[in-house]
Amino acid sequence: MTCGIDMSTPFDDDEQERPVPNRRLVRERAMQALYAYEIGHNVGGESIDFLASRLVYPEFRGNSELLEFAEKLMLRVFNNCDECDTIIKSLAENWDFHRIAPIDKVLLRIGITEMLFFPEIPTKVTINEAIEIAKRYSTDKSGLFLNGVLDAALAKLKNEGRLNKSGRGLIGD
After folding, report:
1. pTM as predicted
2. For the purposes of burial, counting CB atoms within 10 Å of the CB of 96, is it exposed (0-12), middle (13-18) or buried (19 or more)?
3. Does position 130 have pLDDT exceeding 70, yes or no?
């Protein structure tokens, strides 16, 4: 029994088209490593350094710009997790923080980290990337949820004077 899988053609990983390395792929790999850490760190899972070195960095070794972005993103999200969580908790008023899907929580952390610590990335890009990644990896309603929380985070950070963005297209009015 083949369970609906065509076994006449062997599956070969090398024949699969590899995604073109770009910043979205960096964000996806970072999300995957941070998700693995989120799920496993309380039960003896791997360290974030191990996960990053296995899941994120190898794919970008041939591209110094993307590798640098991957390293900065992983480090900044991890080191600022508590600050991001405080912002998320203050904005997701109708949600129990512990009931937010782990992937959505990680994507919110990535988005808020980009807003706070990546002055060169336009906020519209940050929000759009989080939504697009959520469409691929999370629930049907995650995109709307992320959009709402990240829009609110943008407004909050602007009002508090914490948004370090300047230049055309970087603030996203």
Report:
1. 0.84
2. exposed
3. yes
